[in-house]
């Protein structure tokens, strides 16, 4: 299968995650009014989804190594679709949180399968380029998601957003079943006993270089998730913007992500992915230092927005380079390594996001300071990363 076709199919699959996170952001006020709860409480449905999306990958990754990518990925899509329908029927916050957790489990089985499939097919700099191409295709989803959600609010109400997500999951299942899996290079049959699936995590945990990249992923993703969780509050409550303006400004983050992703691809021919990763992590930190400074000085709205866009946009180069490096050492345990990466990323970031919802209150400064703190941690880890990733590999137990 060509890299373009593979990237297209995997890109639209990865897009399921951003759609489930971002499509209902403009509906937060409507959901709060409909359920009779404070606006900030709606953020718990996002944190619950993200936490489940992380923890369930610890199960889905080893299972995909043992039983294959197809049954785990298609099973995850079925769970996701059914849970999305139930979320649309929820009439209390507790019901919505429960079904978002189930939806996160289905999403986790999908999320962990995509990087594992990439690692099955390519490695090294080629993997970084493929992750970049997948990311470029995937960026359409988060850019369009808030606008799509706003359109659903005009046409109906917030329930329609989740029915749309269910329909998209069904479409993905059909596309992958008939267009992706028949064309993939077959993996050697797995012989790992089920009882050793958990112990294989020790290979990942003991690999210090891999865990450094996992830490970078966790902290950079936490920076972005803090913004996503509070983006509706920042733009719609703090600055009083309309749904339409919120969608435009949210899309601006994705546009810069795509631009930096495009720039990153040719740079991979001249520089190692580790060097590019370190540079872009530092760029993100500089943008967040500027953001905190502007907020402290009560600077203008346009300058705050510019700093946010610059910081979040850096994810376009950080994600593909970091994922390729994190998975490089585990060609035979792609699902397990991807699960460790995804579980750490979503679970820890989800916890940070939930704590920020509880303690940040109705203030902008604690939110941006939290984003900067995560970014500083990522810079510290990135500065200690090797200049180029060695080609040693780890084998299953």
UniProtKB/TrEMBL annotation:
NCBIfam families: efflux_Bcr_CflA (TIGR00710). It comes from the Bacteria. It is found in: Cell inner membrane; Cell membrane. Keywords: Cell inner membrane, Cell membrane, Membrane, Transmembrane, Transmembrane helix, Transport. Its main location: membrane. It is a multi-pass membrane protein. The chain crosses the membrane at residues 44-60, 72-91, 97-118, 130-154, 160-180, 213-235, 241-263, 275-295, 301-321, 333-358, 364-385. This is Bcr/CflA family efflux transporter. Residues 6-389 form the Major facilitator superfamily (MFS) profile domain. InterPro entries: Efflux_drug-R_Bcr/CmlA, MFS, MFS_dom, MFS_trans_sf. Belongs to the major facilitator superfamily. Bcr/CmlA family. CDD domains: MFS_MdfA_MDR_like.
